[in-house]
Amino acid sequence: MRIIINGENEEIQEGITLLELISGRGLDPRTVVAELNRNIIAGEDFAAVRLNPDDSLELLHFVGGG
Amino acid sequence: MRKEILAYFTPEQRRRLQSARVGVAGAGGLGSNAAMMLARSGVGHILIIDGDAVEASNLNRQYYLPRHLGMPKVTALSEQLHELDPELDVDARHLWLDGENIPALLPLADIWLEAVDKPAVKALLASHALKAGKPMICASGMGGVGGLAMKRRILKGLTVVGDFCSDIAWKPPLAPRVIQCSAMQTDAVLEWILTGTISPLH
User: Fold this and answer.
1) How far apart are the C-alpha atoms of B155 and A34, rounded to whole Å?
2) Confidence label for A45 from pLDDT (cuts 50, 70 and 90)
3) Helices B29-40/B73-84 angle, 10° precision
4) Which of A66, B37, B58, B65 is deepest in the core (most CB within 10 A)?
5) Is B105 in CB contact (< 8 Å) with chain A?
6) Residue B59 is part of which domain span?
7) What is the CA radius of gyration of chain A?
8) Is residue B202 assigned to a domain?
9) CATH of the domain at A46
10) Domain count, chain A
11) Does any domain span residue A44?
12) Which of B118, B127, B167 sits opposite A33 (nearest CB)?
C-alpha cells in the first residue's frame, strides 16, 4: 500500500505498525518523533498504531550532538 | 549595555525582546553559544538547564574558558551572561532533564531551544513540546567539517535545524559547525520573538 512519508509517496507493507516501519528503516524508535495525519504519536504508542493506505506520516529522526 | 544592544530594534521589538522568556535545554556547545547570542540580541529572561560541569574537552567549542574548569556549566554561563549584561535575568538550574521533570519545566519559558547531546533526550523534549503546544527549536546533525548544508525544517510547533545526518558519534563536534547550528537555532528563536512566527528559509 502507498502512504506519504516526509512528503514522498512510498510503498510499504500492508498492515504494519509504526514501530515496524521505524525499525525497518534502521532507526532507533527512542530517537524518532512521529506525526501521523497531523497528530503527534507518543513513542509508547508506536507499537499500537497500524498504518493505513494514504496515511501522511512525518518522521523526524534525531542524531547526537548538543 | 542593555540600551546599546536594544538600539538596533524598534520600540515594539524592544518590548517583545525584554519580556521574552527563552528556555535553553542544555549548556554545552549549542546551549552555551546560543545563550550568549540571546543575551547579545536583547532577550530579557533566559532559563538555562544543565547537570554537567565544564571539562577541558569542552573548550574546543563551548563558551567556556580554562578558569571555568570544574564549575557547573550553568554557573559558568550565568557568570559570563552577567558580565555581558548585568541587567539580564538568568534562571540557572543545575539538573539533568528527563521524562519526569520536563513536563513541569516546559511552562517556565515562552519558547525553548533544545541543546542536549543525546538523541533520545532530544526526541523526548520534542515530543513533550509538541504535546504541550510549546514552540521549540531543536538541533540535529552538526558534526565534522564541510559536507551537508544545514537547513531549517518546520513540523507544526517544532523547528529543527542542522544537516539531520552528521552524528557526533562518528563525526567530531568542532566549533565551526556546532556554532553554526547554534546560531541557526538562535536566529529562529529571535524570528519567533520579533515576528510571532518561524518561516521556512529560502
Assistant:
1) 10
2) very high
3) 20
4) A66
5) no
6) 2-195
7) 11
8) no
9) 3.10.20.30
10) 1
11) yes
12) B127
Q: How far is A45 from chain B (nearest CA, A)?
A: 12
Instruction: Indicate whether B201 belongs to any domain.
Output: no
On chain A, the residues whose CB falls within 8 A of the CB of B116 are 66
> Per the domain annotation, does B82 fall within a domain?
yes
Domain-embedded: residue A66: no
Angle at B66 between CA B60 and CA B72, to 5 degrees: 90
Taking an 8 Å cut-off on Cβ atoms, the answer to whether A42 and B173 are in contact is no
- DSSP helix/strand/coil, A27: coil
Give chain B's mean pLDDT. Answer: 96
Distance (Å) of CA B67 to CA B11, B29, B51, B77:
38, 17, 19, 12
Report ipTM (2 d.p.).
Answer: 0.91
- The edge-to-edge listing of strands for the beta sheet with A2-5 is A8-11, A2-5, A56-61, A32-36, A39-41
Residue B200 lies in a domain: no
pLDDT, one tens digit per residue, over B45-68 is 999 999 999 999 999 999 999 999
Task: Quote the cell numbers at residue B116.
Answer: 542536549
Q: What is the CATH number of the domain that holds B33?
A: 3.40.50.720
pLDDT digits (tens, 9 = 90+) for B96-154: 999 999 999 999 999 999 999 999 999 999 999 998 999 999 999 999 999 999 999 99
Q: How confident is the model at residue B199 (pLDDT cuts 50, 70, 90)?
A: very high
Q: Give how many domains chain B has, as a whole number.
A: 1
- Assess if residue A34 is contained within a domain: yes
Contacts of B162 in chain A (CB under 8 A): 63, 65
